[in-house]
TrEMBL record:
Alphabetized SMART domains for the sequence: AAA
Keywords: ATP-binding, Nucleotide-binding, Transport
Protein name: ATP-binding cassette domain-containing protein
InterPro entries: AAA+_ATPase (IPR003593), ABC_transporter-like_ATP-bd (IPR003439), ABC_transporter-like_CS (IPR017871), P-loop_NTPase (IPR027417)
Annotated organism of origin: Carboxylicivirga marina
Domain ABC transporter, first and last residues per copy: 2-238
One example GO MF annotation: ATP binding
Pfam families (alphabetical): ABC_tran (PF00005)
Length: 251
């Protein structure tokens, strides 16, 4: 569980996060949504300590991130899997080498143990027979699977995903969303996804927080998002013509 308590973040005199509080629970797929520039990435980066927050608290399973010394922070970071926009694979490494990279960096496991774990992750994301391929030889959807396998290789408690569907076609996006959702439940991870994608919201939005100009304006699930009377949220949802048509046809 990650608890965000009244988090403020300013750059100079510009306040970007204006008192955000929420709880991201274990085994849940949590979505942060909002327009471009609303502060989603700043919030995600603040959660992992890439930005120092101006005030407030961030608690990982009851431990304040701010109180951790540098070696505890380092240990906590190893409990965090990261899935970056655009997959961020190493082009010169094979699929298996990409997935083994965190294991080589952060564990003292034997060669055999590392290979076993890498293959477990490869199988889990259904990438059998791709071990020796290079990123340029596989599709964007497969690259994303490699990135997911790499993100879970150290068996993280927390999984952070920044726009996991960017660059993917709608069908592949759904498959990737479902994979993230499944592994979140299976491994009991606390998953946080930054997204603009209303299809993701409707597919896997168990807990959604809507950020508008640095404030949390709404929080809820995909089941109640269409029933909310909030102008800013409605503007965000129905910016998509398709969702507007669905609403108009149902009213
Ligand atoms: N390092 C920084 N220094 C100064 N301002 C920053 C910095 N990082 C982000 N900002 C500002 O914070 C605001 C929120 O940016 P952020 O990247 O969090 O938006 P976002 O909601 O993730 O948008 P997008 O969906 O386009 O990625 C923007 O006005 C941005 O210019």
């Amino acid at each position: 569980m990650i608890e965000v308590i009244d988090v403020h973040k300013s750059f100079g005199d510009k306040e970007i996060l204006k008192g955000i509080s929420t709880v991201f629970e274990n085994g849940k797929t949590n979505l942060i949504i909002g327009q471009s520039g609303s502060g989603k990435t700043v919030l995600l980066k603040s959660l992992v300590g890439l930005h120092d927050i101006t005030s407030g608290d961030i608690r990982y399973d009851d431990r304040s991130f701010l109180d951790l010394d540098s070696s505890s922070k380092k240990r906590l970071r190893q409990d965090i899997g990261m899935l970056f926009q655009g997959s961020a694979l190493f082009d010169s490494l094979t699929v298996e080498e990409n997935i083994r990279f965190p294991l080589d960096m952060f564990t003292d496991w034997s060669e055999e143990e590392r290979r076993e774990r890498a293959n477990f992750c490869i199988n889990r994301v259904k990438l059998e027979n791709a071990n020796d391929k290079f990123p340029s030889e596989i599709s964007g959807g497969m690259q994303k699977r490699v990135a997911i396998a790499r993100a879970i290789s150290l068996n993280p408690k927390y999984l952070f995903c920044d726009e996991p569907n960017s660059g993917l076609d709608p069908r592949t996006s759904i498959v990737i969303d479902e994979l993230i959702h499944e592994i979140t439940q299976e491994f009991g991870m606390t998953t946080i996804i930054n997204t603009h994608d209303m299809n993701s919201v409707m597919g896997i939005g168990e807990n959604i927080i809507f950020i508008y100009q640095g404030k949390k304006l709404w929080e809820g699930s995909k089941d109640d998002i269409f029933h909310v009377q909030n102008k800013e949220l409605e503007d965000f949802i129905f910016a998509s013509k398709l969702f507007k048509e669905i609403r108009d046809n149902n009213s």
